[in-house]
TrEMBL record:
The chain crosses the membrane at residues 20-40, 47-68, 103-123, 135-161, 173-192, 199-220, 257-282, 302-324, 344-375, 396-422, 434-451. It is a multi-pass membrane protein. It is found in: Cell membrane. It comes from Aminipila luticellarii. GO terms for molecular function: purine nucleobase transmembrane transporter activity. Keywords: Cell membrane, Membrane, Transmembrane, Transmembrane helix, Transport. This is NCS2 family permease. The keyword Ribonucleoprotein does not apply. Belongs to the nucleobase:cation symporter-2 (NCS2) (TC 2.A.40) family. Azg-like subfamily. InterPro entries: Azg-like, Azg-like_bact_archaea, NCS2. PANTHER family: XANTHINE/URACIL PERMEASE C887.17-RELATED, XANTHINE_URACIL PERMEASE C887.17-RELATED.
Length: 452
């Protein structure tokens, strides 16, 4: 173990690494509750998604551990699962397409294959460098706002309104009150640097929700989406449900190639920044960056992410990516792949507790979505609103279009188009990199298909 993970070289030991791995798992275990609930809105079976989420997280994390020896864990990404459900599946369902999640899984699979190719030819790093910083930060902030809106909606804190578009929900209702309480709990725990504040926030909210159901404040009514918050240990008990293996629908591509290409590109674009940003942040905290501020074995880390995405699609879940929650394990002293191996083992163990995770209600996971949204909003501090209007306005458009059009893809599309158009109008055509030209062309074709 010492020879493989080089523990002494990284100034760590087995006990520290295992403790760090458990900490990382507890910090990101909320995805086992959030992802099945979110993809269920896309029409998928929550039990199957739970199984796929746990296995793909374990597989991706193990690849990262053995391929790079980094203390980085992977799982289905927040923001990417939102795009999967609310920007791809639901709009396709509204077009009358059955099982749109099969199309989305096909897009994730293709995205993963493209990532593998881009990583092999080292184009992925170049792609990151060529996209303007403000756009990167604007996309991150926009996703944060979008996730926050989903969380507020899931808890009934924000509701639809025919007169004002959105309105305040029923304050005395249990979901509203408990979700707000849960968010405050997470914030307080985060302030006092308690380990795993998101997970504790979910558990506290869920526990109070059980009490609310017992006393009749929270009522079970499937017609309005309110289900029992108590786990149902039926005959299947702790046996994991079968995931949607290789459930791809490639038939959609033949008649809707441009639309499918935009879906794939949006997955590609969002995950590109999510993964690279996460890796750099974790590496910085773990002192893994070299003297020039670069990440050694970056291509290997990106390859682990790409293979994890392909595996996740084959298993039946949304894009797998590096998790910033790995910083929790790093904070506990994790420095090598042994930390990641430990996290992966716990994801596999979690497979046999699906009734527990699936019973966690939407109002208990909503605080996690809102808090993650707040964390992503921090990137706005890195944005510049002065100087070149293309940079400032492009990032701004990307940021606001996501929540206000309820689509991550729309934010990326209009952000890039705005940036390119403003560059052209200001006589700076030479400053537009090739990747932005290609992106703009693809999005123009998408708009043409929307008009005609």
């Amino acid at each position: 173990m010492e020879r493989f993970f080089k523990l002494q070289e990284h100034h760590t030991d087995v006990k520290t690494e295992i403790t760090a791995g458990i900490t990382t798992f507890l910090s990101m275990a909320y995805i086992l509750a959030v992802n099945p609930a979110m993809l269920a809105d896309a029409g998928m079976n929550s039990g199957g998604v739970f199984t796929a989420t746990a296995i793909s997280a374990a597989v991706g994390t193990l690849i990262m551990a053995f391929f790079t020896n980094y203390p980085v864990a992977l799982a289905s990404g927040m923001g990417l699962n939102a795009y999967f459900t609310y920007s791809v599946c639901i709009p396709l369902a509204e077009q009358g397409i059955e099982d749109p999640w099969k199309i989305a899984l096909a897009a994730v699979f293709v995205e993963g294959l493209i990532f593998i190719l881009l990583t092999l030819c080292r184009f992925r790093e170049k792609l990151i460098n060529d996209v303007p910083k403000n756009l990167k930060y604007g996309i991150t902030v926009g996703i944060g706002l979008f996730i926050t809106l989903i969380g507020l909606s899931n808890a009934g804190i924000v509701i639809a309104s025919s007169s004002t578009l959105v309105d305040l929900g029923s304050v005395p209702s249990a979901p509203f009150a408990l979700a707000f309480l849960g968010f405050l709990v997470i914030c307080i725990l985060h302030h006092y640097k308690v380990i795993c504040p998101i997970l504790w926030g979910i558990l506290v909210t869920w526990g109070v929700g059980m009490l609310a159901q017992k006393i009749g404040w929270y009522t079970v009514n499937p017609n309005v989406g309110q289900y029992s918050v108590f786990p149902d240990f039926n005959s299947s008990g702790f046996i994991p449900e079968k995931p949607a293996l290789f459930a791809f629908d490639f038939g959609f591509i033949t008649k809707n190639f441009i639309q499918f290409a935009v879906i794939v590109f949006s997955f590609l674009f969002v995950e590109l920044f999510d993964t690279v940003g996460g890796l750099i942040g974790i590496a910085d905290k773990a002192d893994l960056l070299d003297e020039d501020g670069k990440l050694p074995q970056a291509s290997r880390a990106l390859m682990a992410d790409a293979v994890g995405t392909v595996a996740g699609a084959c298993l039946g879940t949304s894009t797998v990516t590096a998790y910033m929650e790995s910083c929790a394990g790093v904070g506990q002293g994790g420095r090598t792949g042994l930390t990641a191996v430990t996290t992966a083992v716990f994801f596999m163990l979690a497979l046999f507790f699906s009734p527990v995770f699936i019973a966690i209600p939407g109002f208990a996971t909503a605080p996690a979505l809102i808090f993650v949204g707040w964390l992503m909003m921090n990137s706005i501090k890195k944005m510049s609103f002065e100087g070149d209007p293309a940079d400032s306005i492009g990032g701004f458009i990307a940021m606001i279009m996501m929540p206000f059009t309820y689509s991550i893809a729309n934010g990326i599309m209009f952000g890039i188009l705005s940036w390119v158009i403003l560059k052209l109008c200001s006589g700076k055509m030479k400053d537009i990199p090739a990747v932005m030209w290609v992106s703009s062309l693809l999005f123009i074709l998408r708009i043409i298909t929307m008009i005609f």
